[in-house]
Model the fold of this input.
Amino acid sequence: MRWMPTRSLRAYFDHNAGPLMHKWLHYFPIYQQHLRPFRGRRSTVLEIGVSHGGSLKMWRYWLGRRAHVVGIDIEPRVAGLAEPGIDIMVGDQSDPAFLAELARRHGPFDVVIDDGGHIPAHQIASIEALWPHVRPGGIYLVEDLHSNYWPEMGGRRGAPDTFIAWLGARLDDLHAFHSREDDFQPNDWTSTIAGIHLYDSVAVLDKCAPRPRPEHRKTGFPVFDDVYGRSHDEMLDEHHRRQIAAVGRPLRRLGRLVRHPVVTTRRVLARRR
Ligand SMILES: C[S@@+](CC[C@H](N)C(=O)[O-])C[C@H]1O[C@@H](n2cnc3c(N)ncnc32)[C@H](O)[C@@H]1O
Done:
């Protein structure tokens, strides 16, 4: 078992004696919950927005030495902050060509944390370019979504071109397997988003391997003779009938044994011979 730090991310932040870091305090439990599965594992973690490099060091410390941390930033000076286990590329998070080169060099990613410029259009450009390069089982976390409500960042409540509005469309996509509308059908987002978690200013999208159309089933015995005027015969599908028959068999045997113990025991013994 490899040694893993027992300190929480928040404790690391509070006692940070290294390069500057800037985080909203209510993000720490969110990080802790969604990053925990990657601790001690071989993983590639991308952070958009390096600033002084403090958070890159925090991820590497807390996730462990098997984590490969990659930071990107538009500010050229950050290139000098690379160190063993931490790679840095200089470029614009809204530039698809740069992001394609980033993914070619360092992808696929297990974790992406977007703490870059916080401009809604850039948040959208980044996730659209990088989502195909997130591994199934990985997560994509976008923070400081309050920028989507700030006019100076191009945000406004209800505006159609913010990341919040984009996320609303993904909530629809997540449910597209259940659509009854011709122009609302499953797409790549439908099949590769496993879940969406939304907090104050933070969204976390879970990625899965392409998932099939969900199935639903009924099991067990009806309690009422009919439901909403429909009889069991109308309601039970083939799978449910087989399930009831399968679980009912031992019960019927038990009933026979209680009613006719000698005959049933003889029959069972005869079958065994
Ligand atoms: C909030 S700071 C990052 C803070 C850092 N992650 C931390 O926790 O301390 C945002 C960074 O994003 C960078 N940035 C701004 N616009 C960008 C863009 N279009 N592409 C890449 N990085 C950008 C800025 O240069 C800045 O260093």
Q: What stands out?
A: Residues 21-23, 47-51, 54-55, 72-75, 92-94, 115-117, 122 surround S-adenosylmethionine (CB under 6 Å).
